[in-house]
């Protein structure tokens, strides 16, 4: 019996060793197959476009998995090459600016830029939120906690400014933002949303219903689902950031009946701009209007659109009851309060039957156009990409699938035949290539709101960038003209100069009806949160004569193509520079 047991034990030991050996061999074989499969995929991908070969991969780009389109300009093999690629063939010089070559060139860049362009935004996000981190440490005072209140997004009590930060929201950040805009209360909801106002919500909720932790501050409560954690912010310590200054809008002819035009008024001896602005801010109105000792508060309306200003000399006596041409003119100031008549936005309740693109070259103002469209129509815009920085700033359509048809239009920088033909119609936004190239270079090195440094502009990166991206600017327009089914051409400069007429065209193209007051509200909030701030680059000409010659040829090509399709040509300021 013992002998049989010993044989069984010996057999099991041998079996255990055999199983271990087979398992190890299986894992090694699987690893080899995986590596071989990866190599094949890379080689197959490199054969997709003949011109898309021998692309050097700079060391700094490979570390983050990004390939820079500017490397297409160098025909010489670099120290590191993609597997299985042959030499890049440059076209003949006399063919380099023809529409055919530009569209071919665009296909070379397309696959690379998809991986490069919008991944950069995630790398820039820490730069844009650095100020928020500093605020967390420097702002210790949290004001007075007023309690937990109900929150209805459709009928909000805190109707002032609204901010989102789905990664870094803190109580201090919300309070600072509201105090800067002269609001008395700050309310936080869903752990990431901040609302401002001067009136405390009426409906209180149970304290335990405010149970969402702040996204950027562990242990702190930032409201809950349909619940607001409300703080009084006027007690912020003296070291807090100063409130925004009141902005002088100009001298305007007063409406015939000021009392009917403006919903709030104040008569005060020795009235000052600060007194009137403070009064209107407390009433949550964006305009403060002064005529003599009278202060009026309200919004831009059809009766008072603020489109035709008067000579400032006519208002020289507006602060006196007998001056300003017997009270026919008034001084208008913008208070720190946000115009909230057009800030409500939502997704489409039913899927859109028409799939509309908002297409542009990078740096042409697509984000600004989205801001205008969302506030004019009341519907979110989507995106072919996902930009976390934009999502955190309130562009909620960023996370919605771009083909969901729940958004009013979809942002895209794509220009391939397949990508274009997926859309039923498109708003094609075109901007001066000189401005577009500079804006995109700023975004690349400093994010959506910053400026590239002088060192960036004077480095070899800038000429390489221009050489690669100037052709993309031209080919983007040419391909949309060729493959687009129904187009509305909008020039950035025209939209900036004549905002309401051009915005009306865009809204009508999207088949949405809006009121004049809503458009005036958009005009009052025209910049949104995406106007670049900080130190601009110094006054020097970034474009060499060689760059200008290259860009000007592309401008003439695009201008001719537009006129060939019976569109108006490019604005005169485009050519020549």
Automatic annotation (TrEMBL):
UniProt superkingdom: Eukaryota
Keyword field contains Repeat: yes
PROSITE patterns assigned to the protein according to its UniProt record, in alphabetical order: WSC
Pfam family, one: WSC
Entry keywords, A to Z: Repeat
Example of a GO MF term: sulfotransferase activity
Keyword Repeat tagged: yes
Domain WSC intervals: 142-234, 245-342
Alphabetized SUPFAM superfamilies for the sequence: P-loop containing nucleoside triphosphate hydrolases
InterPro entries linked to this entry: P-loop_NTPase, Sialate-O-sulfotransferase, Sulfotransferase_dom, WSC_carb-bd
Protein family membership: Belongs to the WSCD family.
Protein name as annotated: WSCD1 protein
Natural source organism: Rhagologus leucostigma
């Amino acid at each position: 019996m013992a002998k049989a047991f010993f044989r069984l034990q010996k057999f099991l030991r041998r079996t255990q060793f055999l199983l271990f050996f087979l398992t190890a061999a299986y894992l090694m074989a699987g690893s080899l197959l995986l590596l071989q499969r990866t190599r094949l995929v890379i080689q197959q991908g490199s054969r997709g476009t003949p011109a898309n070969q021998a692309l050097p991969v700079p060391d700094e780009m490979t570390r983050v998995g990004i390939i820079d389109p500017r490397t297409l300009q160098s025909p010489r093999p670099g120290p590191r090459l993609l597997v299985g690629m042959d030499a890049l063939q440059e076209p003949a010089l006399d063919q380099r600016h023809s529409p055919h070559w530009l569209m071919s060139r665009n296909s070379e860049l397309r696959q690379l830029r998809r991986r490069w362009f919008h991944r950069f935004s995630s790398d820039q996000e820490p730069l844009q939120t650095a100020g928020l981190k500093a605020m967390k440490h420097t702002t210790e005072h949290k004001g007075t906690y007023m309690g937990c209140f109900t929150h209805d997004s459709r009928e909000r009590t805190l109707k002032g400014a609204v901010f989102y930060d789905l990664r870094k929201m803190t109580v201090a950040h919300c309070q600072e933002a509201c105090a800067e805009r002269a609001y008395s209360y700050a309310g936080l909801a869903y752990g990431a949303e901040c609302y401002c106002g001067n009136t405390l919500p009426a409906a209180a909720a149970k304290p335990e219903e405010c149970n969402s932790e702040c996204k950027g501050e562990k242990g702190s409560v930032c409201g809950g689902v349909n619940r607001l954690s409300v703080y009084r912010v006027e007690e912020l310590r003296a070291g807090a950031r100063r409130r925004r200054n009141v902005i002088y809008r100009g001298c305007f002819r007063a409406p015939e009946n000021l009392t009917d035009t403006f919903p709030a008024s104040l008569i005060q001896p020795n009235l000052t701009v600060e007194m009137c602005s403070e009064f209107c801010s407390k009433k949550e109105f964006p305009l403060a209007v002064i005529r003599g000792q009278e202060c009026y508060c309200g919004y831009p309306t059809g009766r008072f659109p603020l489109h035709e200003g008067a000579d400032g000399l006519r208002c020289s006596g507006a602060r006196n009851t007998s001056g300003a041409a017997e009270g026919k003119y008034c001084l208008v100031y913008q208070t720190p309060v946000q115009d909230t008549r057009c800030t409500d936005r939502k997704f489409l309740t039913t899927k859109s039957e028409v799939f509309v693109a908002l297409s542009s070259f990078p740096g042409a103002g697509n984000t600004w156009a989205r801001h205008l469209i969302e506030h004019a129509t009341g519907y979110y815009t989507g995106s072919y990409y996902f930009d976390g920085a934009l999502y955190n700033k309130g562009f909620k359509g960023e996370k919605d699938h771009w083909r969901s048809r729940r958004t009013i239009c979809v942002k895209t920088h794509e220009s391939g035949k397949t990508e274009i033909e997926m859309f039923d119609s498109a708003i094609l936004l075109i901007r001066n290539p000189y401005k577009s190239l500079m804006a995109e270079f700023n975004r690349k090195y400093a994010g959506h709101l910053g400026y590239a440094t002088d060192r960036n502009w004077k480095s070899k990166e800038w000429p390489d960038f221009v050489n690669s991206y100037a052709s993309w600017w031209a080919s983007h327009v040419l391909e949309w003209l060729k493959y687009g089914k129904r187009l509305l051409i909008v020039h950035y400069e025209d939209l900036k100069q004549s905002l309401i007429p051009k915005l009306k065209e865009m809204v009508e193209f999207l088949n949405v009806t809006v009121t004049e007051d809503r458009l005036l509200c958009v005009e009052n909030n025209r910049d949104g949160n995406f106007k670049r701030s900080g130190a601009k680059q110094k006054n020097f000409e970034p474009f060499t004569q060689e760059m200008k010659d290259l860009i000007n040829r592309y401008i003439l090509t695009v201008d001719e193509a537009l006129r060939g399709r019976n569109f108006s040509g490019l604005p005169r300021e485009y050519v020549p520079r």
